[in-house]
Structure formats: C-alpha cells, structure tokens
Design a protein that fits this description.
Layout: E1 2-6, H1 10-22, E2 26-31, H2 35-44, E3 49-51, H3 54-60, E4 65-68, H4 75-84, E5 88-92, H5 99-112, E6 116-119, H6 126-136, E7 143-151, H7 171-174, H8 176-187, E8 192-198, E9 209-215, E10 223-229, E11 242-246, E12 249-253, H9 259-264, E13 275-276, E14 284-287, E15 293-295, E16 300-301, H10 305-314, H11 324-343, E17 347-348
Parallel strand pairs: 1-2, 1-4, 2-3, 4-5, 5-6, 7-10
Antiparallel strand pairs: 7-11, 8-9, 8-17, 9-10, 11-12, 12-14, 13-16, 14-15
Protein name: Putative dehydrogenase
GO molecular function, one term: oxidoreductase activity
Keywords: Oxidoreductase
Length: about 350
C-alpha cells in the first residue's frame, strides 16, 4: 500500500515515516516546503515525489492513504480535501483545533466512505500497556486517584510553530491529547473539566504548562489529574510519569517510553513488540496494606501496531486502531479545558 506524508518535521520524519515503513507502506509523495525538510525527505525516500502542497500530491500520486503530520490548524481542511479525493486519512494529534472541526472531518469521512484514523501512538507506550495489564489483573483494586504527567526540563523557547501564539499552538494542544486520550481509554468520558494554563518561560508566546483535572459524579470514576511542565527534570527525582492509587495498591512509574528515542536514532522497527524498557525504568507496586514494595516487569513498547492495524483496516480485515469518534471526545475535553482556563471555573461537558 502507498502513502502520502504531509509535513516532514518531527512528527512526519521521526514518527510516521519509520512506522509506515515498518508496516510495509510505500511512501510515494511527501509534502514539504521548507528546504531543509525537503532535503531530509529526499534522503529518506529518494523515489518519492516532493510536493509543495497536498493538491499537487493528490494529483500526482495514487496513494490510498494520506498521513497528516502538519500544523494543527491545517488538519481539518487538508483532511477534508484528502477524503473528498477518495483517500483514507490518518491525522496526527491533536486531531483538530476543536470539536466542531472534528465533527466536520467525521462527516466528510462518512460522505466519502473512507477511513479517518487519529494517530494516538501512546496507547502503545510500554508503561501505559503495563498499567492496563495491572488494572486488568486487578492488582491495584478499584482506582481512586490517577495522576499522569509529561514533565521535561526545557526552559528555552524554540522558534517552532508549536510554541507560537497561533491556532493549535501551545502545550495543552501538544501533550494534552496524549494524556487525555489515555485517561479516556481507562475511565471513559468525564462530566466536567477544570484547567489552569501556564506561561512560565521567558519570551513565551503561548502556554508552556498546564494542570488539568477530569471529574465525574460516577462512583467508579477516579480523581484524574493530568499535567505537563517545562521545568521538571526527568528521572527518579522528578514527579512520576504515572501515580495510580487503587484501594489495594499504588503504582509509581518514572521516566518516558523509550520508543521515541529509538526512532530519533534512525531505527526502523522490525516487530510489533520492538522496544523494552531498561531494568531501571520498571515501575514500583506498593501494597496498600503491608507497604511491601515490588517492581513490575519491564514494559514493552508497541507503536508499530498502529500502522499494522491501519493496513488491516484498509483491507477490511479489522477495525481502525483508533476511532475518530474517540478523538472527538478528546477535542471536547481540550475545548472545555481552554474555556475553564479562561474563566477559572469548572466546565461541564454536554
């Protein structure tokens, strides 16, 4: 199967290109305007067409799949253009700028009778898969409090679109969709959202930190706290990536999934379960009654599963790995979070 990649920055080059290769896709066209990115694309895919825009790529390539790794504000118009041209579409996070754009994309996919698949690779993070296993095996008991964070030490503002004051820019749009999607997978949709957005770095143009709470009156819905900061070093001294309190036990996990580092180094996955955590990165399971501490097994990252499932869905052999309706819920939560940050109050989802 053939694919067009739109955008060849970090997302297009480091994430989508190698994962498409791992799933057996042929990249036949790449849309990139920046000279350096075009040079990288030509080096990585010497036989692919280099195009200035999606319209040109659609007219010159018969690829069945269009992968949007472009700035957030372009996702809805480019996605609709690709769907109306009869192509299946994968859209990197965030799926759309808001819920209204997500609805427009879903309607376009329904009219075209084509697949519209959000890219949520972190459903296959090593640590998230470990947590799901612990919960499935009831090692923690009913979850009472769930904390998940993406904290880094990056105090210098970079000149890139994600850090500009533009539609779809900022850390809530960048990392929020990962954290929200994982929480929705575990606990379902919340009833309300409360959010604080921060601008803490010198010369910051948009939010570079956030604290987000998801809540519900359901008795089985835990306290969910999500956040990200640019002023927290990684490692055992930092805030945990996950802190999950259950009635029986607590799970603590530090550090990030190792797959991004491997992809940045140029490794092309050769199997689905391709990247194990190092021994030191294993989580801590703390028995709530006895206080006994044990280490959970090293998690195994499985990002290549995503495009393998996309391929199967295109062949009619499986359901899409991520549903557009699920991304719509993530957009709704982000919309509510931004409103909450503006007015300082809880915002209820409808």
């Amino acid at each position: 199967m053939r694919a067009i990649i739109v955008g060849y920055g970090l997302a297009g080059q480091v994430f989508h290109a190698p994962l498409l290769r791992a799933a057996g896709f042929e990249v036949t066209a790449i849309v990139a305007r920046d000279a350096q990115r075009r040079a990288h694309a030509a080096a990585d895919f010497p036989h692919a067409l280099l195009c200035d825009d999606l319209t040109q790529a659609l007219s010159q390539s018969a690829a069945e799949l269009v992968v949007l790794a472009s700035p957030t504000a372009t996702h809805a118009p480019l996605g609709i253009e690709a769907l109306e041209a009869g192509r299946h579409v994968v859209i990197d996070k965030p799926f759309a700028v808001n819920q209204a754009e997500a609805d427009a994309l879903i309607e376009a996919a329904q009219r075209a009778e084509k697949l519209l698949i959000p890219f949520q690779n972190r459903r296959w993070d090593a640590d998230f898969l470990t947590l799901k296993t612990l919960m499935d095996e009831q090692k923690l008991g009913p979850i009472m409090r769930y904390e998940a964070r993406f904290d880094r030490f990056n105090p210098i503002v970079k000149d890139r679109w994600r850090e500009h004051n533009i539609e779809g820019g900022g850390l809530l749009y960048d990392l929020g969709p990962h954290l929200v999607d994982q929480a929705l997978q575990l606990f379902g949709a919340p009833e309300w959202v409360f959010c604080t957005q921060l601008m803490q770095r010198d010369n910051a143009q948009t939010d570079d930190g956030f604290e987000l709470i998801l809540g519900s009156s359901r008795t089985d819905y835990p306290y969910v706290a999500l956040g990200a900061s640019m002023f927290s070093p990684d490692g055992i001294q930092a805030a945990p990536r996950f802190k999950v309190n259950g009635r029986q036990a607590t799970w603590l996990k530090h550090g990030f999934d190792p797959q991004e580092t491997r992809l940045r180094s140029g490794v092309i996955p050769t199997q689905d379960d391709w990247c194990s955590e190092v021994d030191e990165a294993r989580g801590f399971l703390i028995d709530g009654t006895t206080g006994e501490v044990s280490r959970t097994a090293a998690g195994i990252g499985q990002w290549p599963v995503f495009y393998k499932h996309v391929r199967a869905a295109m062949l009619g052999e499986a359901r899409a790995p991520v549903l557009a309706t699920q991304a719509r819920w993530t957009c709704a939560v982000i919309d509510a979070a931004r409103e909450s940050a503006r007015n300082g109050q809880r915002v209820y989802l409808t």
